[in-house]
Specification:
This protein has one helix and four strands, in the order E-E-H-E-E. The protein is mainly β. The chain has one domain. A four-stranded antiparallel beta sheet has the order 2-1-3-4, covered by helices on one side. The longest helix has 8 residues. The chain is globular. The model has no long low-confidence stretch (mean pLDDT 89). Keywords: ATP-binding, Nucleotide-binding, Transport. Belongs to the ABC transporter superfamily.
Length: 83
Amino acid sequence: LEVRALSLDYPAPGGWLRRRAGLRAVHEVSLRLRRGSTLGIVGESGSGKSSLGQALLRLLPAEGQILFQGERLDRLHGKRLLP
C-alpha cells in the first residue's frame, strides 16, 4: 500500500451568506506499507486518525493518491479489490 499526499477536508457549516473555511482533518500524508508490515497511527483526540483510516478505505472522499500493488485504488472495481 502506498499513499501519496493524502488530504481530507470537512466542509464548514453555514449557509450561502456565511462562507467559512472548512476543517482540514488530514494534510498531505504520505506513507508506504510493505506486505507483512504493521503500521500504528497515534495522536491526540481529533487529530485525524479515524478520518485517515476512512479515507484509506474509500469511505470518505480525499485528495491525493492511494495505490495498491502499484495501481490507483480509485481505479480498481469489483473483484480487483478482493485479496
